[in-house]
Structures are given as structure tokens and as C-alpha cells.
């Protein structure tokens, strides 16, 4: 965008801070899922985030979106972009290390490119992007193992849950583009409120949360999960894109899986297999290949 100053130290610090927060979501989910069921984790984080984002929206003089079409799109984003991936990731982490989950979720930008290529007329992938997608797919295959993919055991299904969650995030981001004319803060609050409205009854029916006895560690992890990667990250994302644009922001795709893997090793004592590092290298290389074209910046509205 014309008139934008080159990225400075504060811009990179904000980008790294956001990557650290998003990468930490896998750690927090792993801590919470020890004693809290996946649906209740998804419900709890959306309730906390919805409250924070609604307050942030109203405090800045914005309002929630209006109109049936807008709320229909918000419902779609909530279900596909929050309800499904939040639940799938938590379910997957019941049996899979947090660092490995972060690696698989690193394919998110590549899935977004693949879906955009298939579903839009103006975002077709060239040879470089196609090569990037294939490298990312190869990374997932290396991490899970061809043999396990053919067997489709419980652990393999958990890995595939992460891949489906990445596809959900990608699909949600494409739907979210149709809301580009609306207030970013208002839409974020609306999406999180609808997500909570779906997940809370689901938690009450499926998990009967009054029967759950979470540890203090799990409760704190769930609270932080709602406050940081689910709520605060939304506001930080907007700040970065407004300051430096979507192309600068896209560099975060290299950092999030690295932070997720590092947290798992340093704080949870996870020991990733050699295949994990090979998979991470393939996925990050795929992102590098796929960055042939700069993404279009979203509408700059708060």
C-alpha cells in the first residue's frame, strides 16, 4: 500500500509476539485436555474470547454487524472456522504431542492456496504454488508415515483431524473475505459469540461439564487459551495488517509451527521423532515455494 513505512523493529516484535501466542495455543490445549474434554475446551475458549472481543468492539465505538446475509456468513465462519477446528485440534491432542500438532497445522496457508485455486476465479495457483502444496502434503505424509496412513488407526485419525482442522481454518478464511466490508472488530466478536452459542449447548449435552473435575493447571490453561490465542490474537492480527499489510503478516506462517514445537519440547518434555523435523522442513519449504504472489490485503476496517 502506498504511503506505508518499511517494517521496523516494533513491527517485527509484534509479529513474533503474535506467532508466540498462536504457537502457544497447542501447549495450552495439551495442558487443558488432560482433564477437560475437547468440546468443553472449545466452548470455554470461545466464551472467554467472545466476552473480550465484544467489550473491545463496544469500547472502541463499533457495533455488531447488521443484516441477515451478514449473520448467515458469520454463522458459516463460526461453524467452519471455529467450532470444528477448535474441537478437532483438542480431540487430536488427547493422543498426539502438541509440537506434532503444530507441525501438521503448519499446512494451513498451503490448504488456503489449494482451496482458493479450486473455488475462486482470480487466485489460480502457478507452478511454484503447486510445488509448495505438494511439498506440504509430503511433509504430512512423512510425519504420519505411509504405513500408518494405510492402517487408519486411532493415532492416524488424530493426525488427520489436524489436517481437517487446517482445511476448516482455510475455508473459514475464504468465507471471511465476503465480510471484508464490515467492521473487523464487530465481525470477530459476532463470530466468537455465535461459536460460543453453538459450543456451550454441545458441551452441556455431550460432556455434562458439572461432572468434570479439572485440575487447576487445566483451568488456567483454558482461561489463557481464551484470552490469548483466541481473543488477543485477533486484535494483534488487525494491528499488524493495518501497519504493514497482508504480505508482511504472511511471514508468521514460518514462525507458528516453530514456536509450537519449541514449547512442546522445552515445557512439556516432548521428544519429537526425526521424521517431525523432516516434515517441518518440507512444510516450511512448501510455504516458501508458494509465496510466489503476495496476498491481497483485507479491507482496513476495525
Describe this structure in words.
This is DMT family transporter. Keywords: Membrane, Transmembrane, Transmembrane helix. InterPro entries: AA-Vitamin_Transporters, EamA_dom, EmrE-like. There is one protein chain. The protein has 302 residues and is mostly helical. Helix content is 76%, strand content 0%. The protein has one domain. The longest helix has 34 residues. The C terminus is likely disordered.
The profile of the biggest β sheet is: none
Tell me, rounded to a whole number, the average pLDDT. Answer: 91
How many distinct folded domains? 1
Q: Give the overall shape.
A: globular
What series of H and E elements makes up the topology? HHHHHHHHHHHH
The helix fraction, in percent, is over 70%
Question: Which percent range describes the beta-strand content?
Answer: under 5%
| Secondary structural class | mainly alpha
Rg over CA atoms, rounded to whole Å, is: 19 Å
Number of helices: 12
Annotation, overall tally of beta strands = 0
- Distance between the terminal alpha carbons, to the nearest Å? 17 Å
Unreliable sequence segments: 293-302
Pfam family, one: EamA
Main location: membrane
Membrane topology: Multi-pass membrane protein
GO cellular component, one term: membrane
Amino acid at each position: 500500500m502506498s504511503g506505508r513505512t518499511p517494517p521496523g523493529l516494533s513491527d517485527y516484535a509484534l509479529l513474533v509476539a503474535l506467532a508466540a501466542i498462536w504457537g502457544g495455543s497447542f501447549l495450552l490445549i495439551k495442558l487443558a485436555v488432560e482433564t477437560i474434554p475437547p468440546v468443553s475446551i472449545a466452548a470455554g475458549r470461545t466464551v472467554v474470547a467472545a466476552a473480550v472481543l465484544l467489550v473491545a468492539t463496544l469500547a472502541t465505538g463499533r457495533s455488531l454487524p447488521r443484516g441477515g446475509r451478514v449473520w448467515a456468513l458469520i454463522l458459516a465462519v463460526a461453524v467452519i472456522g471455529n467450532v470444528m477446528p477448535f474441537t478437532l485440534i483438542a480431540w487430536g491432542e488427547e493422543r498426539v504431542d502438541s509440537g506434532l500438532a503444530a507441525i501438521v497445522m503448519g499446512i494451513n496457508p498451503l490448504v488456503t492456496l489449494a482451496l482458493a485455486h479450486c473455488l475462486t476465479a482470480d487466485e489460480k495457483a502457478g507452478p511454484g504454488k503447486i510445488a509448495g502444496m505438494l511439498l506440504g502434503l509430503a511433509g504430512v505424509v512423512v510425519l504420519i508415515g505411509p504405513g500408518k496412513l494405510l492402517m487408519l488407526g486411532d493415532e492416524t485419525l488424530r493426525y488427520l483431524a489436524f489436517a481437517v482442522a487446517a482445511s476448516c481454518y482455510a475455508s473459514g478464511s475464504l468465507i471471511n473475505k465476503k465480510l471484508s466490508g464490515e467492521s473487523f472488530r464487530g465481525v470477530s466478536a459476532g463470530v466468537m459469540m455465535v461459536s460460543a452459542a453453538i459450543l456451550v449447548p454441545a458441551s452441556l449435552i455431550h460432556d455434562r461439564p458439572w461432572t468434570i473435575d479439572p485440575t487447576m493447571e487445566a483451568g488456567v490453561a483454558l482461561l489463557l487459551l481464551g484470552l490469548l490465542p483466541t481473543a488477543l490474537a485477533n486484535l494483534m492480527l488487525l494491528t499488524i495488517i493495518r501497519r504493514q499489510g497482508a504480505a508482511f503478516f504472511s511471514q508468521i506462517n514460518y514462525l507458528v509451527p516453530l514456536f509450537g514445537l519449541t514449547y512442546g519440547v522445552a515445557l512439556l518434555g516432548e521428544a519429537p521423532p526425526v521424521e517431525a523435523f523432516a516434515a517441518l522442513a518440507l512444510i516450511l519449504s512448501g510455504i516458501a515455494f508458494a509465496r510466489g504472489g503476495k496476498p491481497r490485503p483485507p479491507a482496513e476496517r476495525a
